[in-house]
Structures are given as structure tokens and as C-alpha cells.
Automatic annotation (TrEMBL):
InterPro entries found in the cross-reference section: Glyas_Bleomycin-R_OHBP_Dase, Glyas_Fos-R_dOase_dom, VOC_core
Gene3D superfamilies reported for this sequence: 2,3-Dihydroxybiphenyl 1,2-Dioxygenase, domain 1
Species: Streptomyces natalensis ATCC 27448
Protein name from the UniProt record: VOC domain-containing protein
SUPFAM superfamilies, per the entry: Glyoxalase/Bleomycin resistance protein/Dihydroxybiphenyl dioxygenase (SSF54593)
């Protein structure tokens, strides 16, 4: 598996709860390393790297500059899927809808918020 050029690592209060949530949406959670004290997990989507989740207190210890940063983010992440309509129909009852499906520049987008306040925008896969 090849990691992308930029790999998001989200601080979360409960790594297992975050993994459970994303697994309901079709992700696969893997251990992030061999250290049992390191609570980082790698999440795959359709077999490819998508993001990492890391217990917030461990992340704040790892990078003290984040010690006062709240969980959640100002911004959003995008998840590109093969079949937009089918995926949105599948996850809609499992998520908190932030902004319902809209079309922008010819592309459908559906926004939801995960249990930790991160906003995810679902889009159709495309080639740049």
C-alpha cells in the first residue's frame, strides 16, 4: 500500500469508538504500529490508505504544540467514492448530515460530521 503525499492524522478522544464509526461506513481499521502503548490506527477505504486516528492525549504528548487544540478541525476532508449515490444512501442513516447533497461545479457533494466534529465531504471519484 502506498501512502498519499499528505496523510491526515485526526486526534480523537476514543480511538476504538472512532474506528467503530468509520468501519460502519465501509472503512477497515488496522493497527498503526507494533507498540501496544501507541493508540494510532490506520483506516483504509476500499483497500487504500484514507487516514489515521490517534488518541488525542497521545497526540498532544507527541506534539506539545497541539496541547491546547480542541478535537475537531476548521476545514474538511473529502472522501472520493466509486458510486456516489449508492454510498450516500448507505451511510445517510449512520451519520449526522452537515449539508445535504448539492451540486457544485458539476460534482455532487454530501457532507457529514463524524462523532468527533470532523467534517467529511463525500464526492464521486474523478481523474484530474
Amino acid at each position: 500500500m502506498k501512502a498519499p503525499a499528505i496523510s491526515p492524522c485526526l486526534g480523537v478522544p476514543d480511538t476504538q469508538a472512532a474506528c467503530d464509526f468509520y468501519e460502519k461506513l465501509g472503512f477497515t481499521a488496522l493497527p498503526g504500529g507494533d507498540d501496544a502503548n501507541d493508540d494510532i490506527r490506520i483506516l483504509l477505504f476500499e483497500g487504500e490508505f484514507a487516514l489515521m486516528v490517534f488518541r488525542d492525549r497521545h497526540l498532544r504528548d507527541w506534539l506539545p504544540v497541539l496541547k491546547d487544540t480542541p478535537v475537531g478541525a476548521f476545514g474538511m476532508f473529502y472522501l472520493a467514492v466509486d458510486d456516489f449515490d449508492a454510498y450516500v444512501e448507505k451511510i445517510r442513516p449512520l451519520v449526522t448530515v452537515t449539508k445535504d447533497t448539492l451540486e457544485h461545479n458539476g460534482q455532487k457533494i454530501f457532507y457529514f460530521t463524524d462523532p468527533n466534529g470532523y467534517v467529511i465531504g463525500v464526492t464521486q471519484k474523478q481523474t484530474w
